[in-house]
Amino acid sequence: MSGQSPRGGELVPSGIVVLLGTRGPTSRTAIARSLDLSPATVTQVTKDLIARGIVEELESVPSNGGRPRRLLGLAGRAGVALGAKVTADHVAVVTVELDGTVRSSRSHDYDPAATDALDRLGRILTSEVAGLDDELLGVGVGVPGSVDSQASGIVDAPTLGWRAAQVGPILRQAVGTPVLVDNDVNTLAAAERLYGIGREHSSYLVVTIGRGIGCGIVVDGAIYRGANGGAGEIGHIPVWADADQPVCTCGSTGCLEAYIGADGLARTARDRGVIGPRGTLAGLLRAATTGDGTARAVYAEAGELLGRALAGVIHTVDPEVVVLLGEGVDGWEFWQSGFEPSFRRSLLPARKNVQVLVEPWTEDQWARGAASLVLASPFDAAGNGGEQSRLVRARLGAS
């Protein structure tokens, strides 16, 4: 987690606990390097954690010429986080260990348009936390929309029909634990901080392709959320000026998402006769896989549009690396033929070699990302989680 120092006295102990949980046994020297702390600070803090029975000394390992280094590890199980991803028809819930292992995974039918939708969500989460007792550090919730802050959790999510929805306050009252809420793509960016590229890079983008096109922006180790929590909505970059174009879910025309989101791809495939009037993306992917040239052209054109739009984002944010995720990556081999030349051609010379990583996708990753909001609380130097992050750190026994 180079470049992601848990600045501030109360962040350091819990940052060390989570680092040991996510990486396993680690030397004091490696802890200092990873968290950008002085060796003296690490020695002092770990001494206290050992005395409190949270951390223990393990075996020694050889060092380069000096005396053997002692590794530190967690003395016991440091807790779990619950993650919930809210969609238009279900809620996916996972219980996640500190090292990112998914202990359990379930799905609940859900109607966000129901008059008691938030109360129903509270009941779902209450049933899920039952039995976790003192293990539970907190609950993270990912939603497909804008969230004013992780700490308050007020949500605007047009695809769910939510306007200024009091998600955070209602869920905290229902569940009785710390609850952090954020945009679902931001939750994936939080997961990358703990378990992925965020270990080696402090500035990166997480771009998702699927029903929509989203982007989580991490700058200097912190998720950039913007003035109102809506940063990263690259699916609504205008890519076409003609008003006689498909209407996006946001109500505008010409948005990137309207063309290359799931609905846009399926519409194009139907218009070109690749799939029938009720055809789906699964049918488009099958056609492309079996060599249908028109199907492959649909994907290639989508990749070209994505490449040009993403190049603009690269010029604006200047990340070290980009990660592509989401349900749409199962067809990436067909996107790529249009994406790669368009993307590279659109970049300034100094940016042409920026790395783009495509990671395998599973449905659990959305909810696991939501749980990462809780597990990343020790690195919340920007204070996005406010009191909720502080309560998580207290449950870690380190604040």
TrEMBL record:
Its ancestry begins with:
Bacteria, Bacillati, Actinomycetota, Actinomycetes, Propionibacteriales
* Pfam families to which the protein is assigned, alphabetical: ROK
Q: Which family does it belong to?
A: Belongs to the ROK (NagC/XylR) family.
Q: Which InterPro entries match?
A: ATPase_NBD, ROK, ROK_cs, WH-like_DNA-bd_sf, WH_DNA-bd_sf
Where is the chain membrane-spanning?
A: none
Identification of the protein by name: MarR family transcriptional regulator
Q: Which SUPFAM superfamilies match?
A: Actin-like ATPase domain, Winged helix' DNA-binding domain
What is the originating organism of this protein? Kribbella rubisoli
Superkingdom of origin: Bacteria
